[in-house]
Protein 1
Amino acid sequence: MIVVTRLNESRFAVNPDLIERIHASPDTTLVMVDGAKYIVTETMEEVIEMIAGYRAYVLNLAREMPAYQHGHPQLGLVPPADGQAGEPGTAGNTVPLRPRNK
């Protein structure tokens, strides 16, 4: 989330992934994917910098996760096939495919 300021000086957080467009004419307007519009005091350039900083922060958090190994996240969806047959996550525990009945 990025924190922006309304014209009345109240601050709120917005999910930058839901921003569709940013207009600067002359006030900066965030147009969300659902059509909602927010006028903020920050310039378009400042909002873009905040979005870039937020995304860099998320990527950095993902890289620091303990499950992040060998340059790829270990999501646990498909276990690695290295190791001895019969061990968890090895080819010895795979279920063979059956042909479809036609």
Protein 2
Amino acid sequence: MTDQPTPQWKTLDKDLNRLTRLEEATMYASRPLVGVGISLVFVSLAAVAAAILTGGEAQSLAVVVAAAFGAYMALNIGANDVANNMGPAVGAKALSLLGAIAIAAVFETAGALIAGGDVVSTISKGIIDPAGLADSMVFVRAMMAALLAASIWVNIATWVGAPVSTTHSVVGGVMGAGIIAAGLGTVNWPTMGAIAASWVISPLLGGIIAAAMLAFIKWRVIYVEDRIAAARTWVPVLIGIMAAAFATYLSLKGLKKVVSIDFGSALLIGAVAGIVVGLISVPFIRRQSAGLENRVRSLKTLFRLPLVVSAALLSFAHGANDVANAVGPLAAIVYVQQSASVAGEVAIPLWVMVIGALGISFGLVLFGPKLIGMVGNQITKLNPMRAYCVALSAAVTVIAASWLGLPVSSTHIAVGGIFGVGFFREWHADRRARRVQRDRRPEPIPRQERARRKLVRRSHFMTIVAAWVITVPAAALLSAACFLLLRAIGF
């Protein structure tokens, strides 16, 4: 006869189980608060470091507050902008979320500290006439308002799940503060028109190039009789193109601090790198493809490593290029406080760049998974081949835009590439369905059913496009409000 548990133990077990569930629920609910707490500590430490490095002078209060704003901005860049580089690799399952965060944190920091620009334009992208902000106090107030407004807007966009351009956010912030400080006439409206045009040009270029690359892979590798043999021929070529694109991209965008390279030299560097890497990858792909079955699933293995490398290189280039733009207002405030004059371009102090680099890493680790998951999984389904096309299109589009002299956003290009891949898949699937339907002559698929079979989530598409369109005006309005508030409190 087995002993039955006494009633009091049953009651105790039930109570303990309830307490365990309550504890788990409490821990789950409090996880966001942990991130907020760590962020507040980082922002506070940035302010303290600025106070120490400025020697505790009376005029250093503006630098201390601006350092806190800059740290807040860096956190938001890590939470939002980096997802565009790592999202496709995570969505394609070439990288785990933890691995993507680790790689991005290392390469973003390395890009900012090793290859970050020596100087940055104080009036972001030349949209405001410096003569309109010649008074140093007005200039400092405008830069602080721009930095705070851009940070708030990127934070809001991250909260709603929309990847936006941090550079455009800073541009909008500078414009809004400049208008309040010096009037509408101080804005360089042709430059603003070019930036507005980039809202359309960037995603379209990224989407077209990504779709074209995917179409080529389907044509030459997937829809052939011997896929493995085709992959051994064409995958090294694609890897060589990737190497050429990224070598050119990094030469133009990521190595300004190390060496100044013109466009022709960057193309030559890219061509040499593409040929060398392409030839080296031939035996590597041959070994990797040995024994693989003649299936589409087998091809995904061959694209995983190139995709991981491309994600790391995108992060390095982003750290080198975009971080300087984001902390530019902070660097400008430091310069003005030290020299009591306004300059068109200023050097970026090392400690300012360190705040930017560390802030991006913290923001990525604490808040990045949300946007990485959305970009990688929720817009359209990605595999290594599709994600590879997105990464390659990002590099090629930036090169093409640099050649044409067009201001483009890396965020818009990367997300536009994902949309391009998704819409191409929709078109291709619909085309194949029509062909099968025509050959077999079954009952026609109703229009409502065809409309339901979408491979791109329209809700995300509309949210992201709307966020892109309103980024500059929203940041400008927020900046104007911040400028008026700072002036009202006598800062």
Protein 3
Amino acid sequence: MIDFDKHISEETPPKASAMINTFRAFGYNLQTAIADLIDNSISAKSENVWINYEWKGKDSWVIITDDGEGMDKNTLVNAMTPGSKDPNDERDINDLGRFGLGLKTSSFSQCKNLTVASKRNGDPTLKRCWNLDFVNKTGKWTLLDYISDDSFLEKLNNQKSGTTVLWENLDRLVGNSHHENDAARKVFLEEFSLVEEHLSLVFHRFLEKRKFKLWINGNTINGWDPFMKEEDGGQLICDELLENEYVHIKCYVLPHISKISTEKRISAKTEDWYKLQGFYIYRNERLLLYGDWLGLFTKNEHYKNARILIDIPNKLDHDWKIDIKKATATPSITIRKDLVRLGKMTRLNAANIYRFRGNQLMLDDSITSFDFQSVWKATKQRNGAVNYYVNESHPIISKILESETITAKEIKSTLKLIGRTTPIEAIIQNYSENPESLELRNETRELDSGTIQLAQLMFSSLKKSGVSSDIAIKQILNIEPFNEYPQLIETLK
């Protein structure tokens, strides 16, 4: 082994201003930044976490207080020191941290003034502050014993123990906005609405098990279960342990939207079901990544009810490439084949819901084993394309066709029936399963006798009304579906 002690030349510590500004560019948004701070509160065995914010334009602030164990002076200074923890160190099985950077990087991504105050049972409240403008000015790693207003410590001072994190100078969120800027205020409030949704999902298992309570501006935040385990019609189709039983996987298929009551659809986020399909990776019950097929599959309307829960311990952080933000993860090589297998199975079960609901069998004109008459029928071509057409054998359609005379009211009623029964679900499903079918369907089609006869009738009618042949042909070729057959010109001369 090389003895590098003999080759030491000089030490090159990073410049404070350059490094601390680099920490601001780790890619956090407001939701992931606040979630990172709550991880620390959970690790500190907090029973309550209070998030408060106030719009004051450029003087707006965010404060997060918990009632956890709190920190003494050495622990507080260490917590405020960038890179204070080696990610390779062995950690408590329930520890949600890893790099020793989360508090700093998440906070610096949102503000230029970070103050952390903490109190252990029986001890006085301690505080430390990073002011980025001061660091940039001095070029030194100077941690300050400072807080802008002692009233921010009132809640913490009245507790036995806990920690408060205060963000001020929110340059990334509000900039220099005036407090009367309604547009900026609206954006500010909308961002915190997204924070509520994000936290209710990311920490839903903690909140459901009452491991801690979460409050935002005095309102309790409840957990939102993305697997809807309490809803009728949902299915747990698989439960497996993998990777030496360290990884626990459960495969769920959600109930069809028609089985969810109207009042529950908003809370169920049914409008987002397409985006929420995929794998849900949890580390120590904290959701890291969701609504993603991890590059193993593509999102598809047909599989929007498929969701797969993956539980991993923090000892697999390196294997799964957990990043600093705890917002991305990559499955280990050894488990990818299993994820593909389980993903295919779950997606197939999810697809079956829409195969039934889409009434594909009832539309298929090659199946004659039942008497059900749908308004629309579907026929599959040799090239895989599917054509949909109005069923002339349907009682209402056939009655119209057999009538000697048809009133305007009958025509309107029939057109309304045809429009109302358009098989949208079946069309979406078919395109989702076979997207190239659209291109196949758009290939040049042969001109059939029925289309020729219809065009000739219209041509004759236009001629009788006094329109010239050339104008009549131009008008017909501007009407669907005649516009698809320029060769009609030869039949209309």
Protein 4
Amino acid sequence: MKRTQFRMETYNLSDPRYRRMFVIFMMSTAGLFLVLGVFFVFQTESNHNSQLGKVTSNITSRTLLQVMSDNVPYLQEMIHRPGSEQMVSRLFFEVMTSFDPQDPRTFLSNEIPLFALFDTDIDTASKDVTFSDVPIESSPPANLEEQVMNQIKKQEQTENKPPSTTVTSPKVKRVFIYHSHFSESYIPELDQSKGMKANDANKNITLVGKHLAEDLAKMGIGSVASHVPYPYQGAYNASRKTVVQALKEYDHLMYLIDIHRDSQRRKKTTITIKGKTYARLAFVVGGASKHYTDNLKLARSMYKDINKIAPGLVRGVFIKPRTMGTNGEYNQSLSKGCILVEIGGIDNNFQEVYRSTDILAKVLRERISDAIPVQK
């Protein structure tokens, strides 16, 4: 029987060839770690856009707790812990399929169009609010999206561009208002012969932002309301650039408010208070934001303060985690003072919406301690 012998090679680093090889190897290793480090930092800062985040977002909090409990014994007391084989198989199943075996909604969301939009947690809500009342989005019709894109291109090519912002006095700006889904509008305010339903390139939610800015100005709060249009696809990435620019331009901003219109119907988005109808509000907090805790605390506080003035006006505070169907970040990683508010639904009118906006402005004014009402 032939015996195989192994021989250990030795390398003399005094040899220039081996020294060169060793230096190249060390530099390559350092370069690899540098690239990986930059990559993961970028993923952290841009988690709302990362493919890795989309995959890991399929893992439920319960499964994550089970994985973490191996190293943090205290967490074992918080869950009914399955065996390791069951945990591994469940983790693999959720990552690969986006299904949570204990939540039937995750099965339906992959089979029923728009059902994924209901992948929302109700944090705080009025007594009459149920799961069917959570805010939902609806994309604009294709012909409007094409019209918007043409409008954006036309503005980019025009030297004398129309003003993209409404800037109010005083000089110090505390509030920045914008609209990621700028074409959202209200059916009673539109000519339905155009076939745009609840969307319009001009008569839309940006008028609500302008009204809020004017309200704040009367109360002595300087603000900037952006009317920049964005395509529906990739809207939050596009509006993020606007917000970043505003943060650079205005040093004293306290609140960044993204105003939307809900797609729920009138019964769920309207309330009568002292004989007048109001468009109900809803606050949405992105569960994937790095400032999630602070923005959730802010939304809860706004909910409490507004409903103290007008009971039931705010439907609730809703948390949207990042999933295969939702953004889950909504630019809220840019500040601890981010507010995404839905004002009314598709069946409300501007009069009802403006009444609610007036109360929103009043609560904001109370929160900004150094605001001085403008003298008439």
